[in-house]
Structure prediction request, 240 residues.
Amino acid sequence: MEVKIEDSVLVREYISGDEKALSILINRHNQRISSFIYSKVLDRDITEDIFQDTFIKVINTLKKGSYSEEGKFLPWVMRIAHNLIIDHFRKNKRMPMFEGSDDFNIFSVIGDDKLNAEKQIIKNQIDSDLRELVDELPEDQREVLLMRIYKDMSFKEISENTGVSINTALGRMRYALINLRKIIDKHNIVLTN
Amino acid sequence: MEEIYAKKNETCELIKAQPETVQFLLNYSKSMHIVDYDGLKFENNKN
Prediction:
C-alpha cells in the first residue's frame, strides 16, 4: 500500500534540499490549481502562465526560508494563484488587448497617415523638381500659378493683386498648367510618388 | 407552458498544466540558489 506523504513533510524535505519533493507537490496539486486558474481566466495559455508564475513564487519563498504556514500548503499556493489572477485582470484593464481578425485589421483604422522616410524624400524631390519647372514658365503665368498653388489665393485675390480680370487670371493659370505639362513631356520627366 | 430562463450552470473543466511547464519549474528550482549576504537574501540563478 502506498503511503501518502503529507504536504508539510514534503515542504520540509524540499526546503532541506530534496528537489524530488517539489515534483511530488506540483504533480499532486497540478489539476486542482490549474483548474482553479482556468475557471477564472478561461484561457489555456494564460492558465499555464499563471500556474508557472505561481510556482516560481512558491519556489522563491520556500528557498528563501520565508514560508511559515506549515500544514497549509495548498491554501497558500491557491492564494498566490488568486493574487496573480487579480494582477492579470488589472493589467488587462489598463492595457486591453485588441486582436484583429482576418477580415478586420485594427491598423486600417488607427494607421499612421504620415509618409515613410523613403516616400517623404521622393515627395521632397518632386516638390523641388516641380518648383524648378515652374521657374521655366513665362512671368505672367508663373506669377498666377505661384499665387494660386503656393499661396493658396483665390482668383479674385489674384486678379486684385495683379491688376488683371479674373478671366485673364483663370486663362493664365490654364496656360501655366498646359505649358508645365509640355515641359514635362518634352524632357521626359517622371514625377511620381 | 412556462419557459425556464435559468442559466445553465457551466460545467467545471478539469485541466492540468503541461508537462513542459512542470519540467520548467523543476529545472528552475534546481538552478535557483539563495545567497545570504550580510543578512540580505539574493536570488541566484545558475543557468
